[in-house]
Every structure is written in structure tokens, then in C-alpha cells.
Amino acid sequence: MRRGPMPQEIICSGCGYVLYKGEILKSPQDILRKYEGKCPRCGKTLNFDVNNIEITSIYDAKRAKEGRASS
Ligand SMILES: [Zn+2]
Fold this sequence. Notes:
Elements: E1 8-12, E2 18-22, H1 28-34, E3 53-57, H2 61-70
Antiparallel strand pairs: 1-2, 1-3
The chain binds zinc ion.
């Protein structure tokens, strides 16, 4: 099993499909645009609502905020 930095994961709450997983923090907006607002697997409409997408980070929120501000 390969291990590496995985700061962010965006998962469809409908089916668990991993919409985004990567080292770079992306805004949910970018992800939604990429998938045209729908989950490619189950067709669920994706929203920014935390009920619909799940965003996890190994970094704390403060650090993520700093990272975003510096970009
Ligand atoms: Zn889905």
C-alpha cells in the first residue's frame, strides 16, 4: 500500500465516490464545476452543503486557511 500526503478528500455522500483526492486543497466549487454539479457515479446533485459532500483534511482548519490565503 502506497502512502503519501493526502490532505483533502471530497466524497459523494450518496455513494461514497471519491470526487477528489489529492495533496492540493481545492475548493468544493472547483470540484462541482468539474463534475457539472453531479456525482458521476450515482448522479446525485452535489452541493456545498456538508450533508452532500464530505471534506476531510489531515491538516487542521487553521492551516488549510493559511494555505489558501498564501496561494
Ligand atoms: Zn455519488
